[in-house]
Amino acid sequence: MTSPRRSHWDDVYTTKPADTVSWFQDDPTPSLDMIAQTGLGTGDPIVDIGGGASMLIDRLLDAGHSAMTVLDIALAGLAVAQQRLGARAGRVTWIAQDVTVWQPPQDAFSIWHDRAVFHFLVDEADRLAYRSALDQGVRASGFVILAPFALSGPERCSGLPVRRYSADMLQAELGPAYHLIEQQRQTHMTPAGNHQNFIWCLFRKTPTSAAAEP
Ligand SMILES: C[S@@+](CC[C@H](N)C(=O)[O-])C[C@H]1O[C@@H](n2cnc3c(N)ncnc32)[C@H](O)[C@@H]1O
Fold it and tell me: Which of 112-135 are b and which e, b meaning 16 or more Cβ less than 10 Å from the residue's Cβ?
């Protein structure tokens, strides 16, 4: 059965052109900069959580990345990206699933990237489920890039309530197995010309699970 959450996002992507939604960015420079900051190579596996129709995947393909997965609850969002990419879509693994029920392969990813998705998880149970997927999917010494709305950001996105974050709050969500390496504030200008404040955080997972014990 289709969940209300999935219906919401499928409706968004079927009723609005992808370049008109508030989160659209033609140039995903903040993501590319943080991915570059990890120092990892183009063969290291990256997952874009809630990637939807984002242009990030196009830019990573342009840069030669070859091990990319895009997960999104909205099949319609993924379809927009796939159509835009054409034959290049075949170089990407696409997963249409709610991240809070996803069971990723153990230690599958070197980089977990999430722009404007985690902040929709306003219920603690959903955040715990997200964290469980993240713990399972991110390998030791892997990187986590989280970019939700900052404390000064909007209270809603796409008509839904969001939870806004500081770097300390994100650190508390991830727990001691993840170390904050970098934090940046960024103001996104929506296609309608409004400003939205984001907090960008780069975390690194500890090298061994034993080191993750508090
Ligand atoms: C604000 S958009 C951001 C899209 C993309 N990350 C970007 O920066 O352009 C939020 C995205 O998260 C997806 N999404 C929302 N809740 C989700 C969930 N529980 N699991 C997976 N994807 C989700 C939506 O379908 C949508 O594509």
Answer: bbbbbbbbbbeeeebeebbbebbb
Tell which one of 3, 9, 160 to mutate to probe ligand 1, the residue whose CB is within 8 A of the most ligand atoms: 9
Residue nearest to atom 11 of ligand 1 (CA): 50
Region 195-201: what's the mean pLDDT?
A: 98
Q: Which residues contact ligand 1 via a Cβ below 6 A?
A: 5, 9, 23, 50-52, 54, 72-74, 77, 98-100, 115-117, 120, 157-158
User: Residue 187 forms beta bridges with which residues?
Assistant: 197
User: How do residues 53-93 score in pLDDT, each as one tens digit?
Assistant: 999 999 999 999 999 999 999 999 999 999 999 999 999 99
Q: Residues 6 or more apart from 75 whose CB is under 8 A from it? A: 10, 96
Looking at residues 45-60, what average pLDDT do you find?
A: 98
For residue 99, how far is its CA from the centre of ligand 1 (angstroms)? Answer: 9
How far, in Å, CA of 25 to CA of 46, rounded? Answer: 20
Could you tell me the two tokens for 121? 């998880």
- pTM of the full predicted structure? 0.97
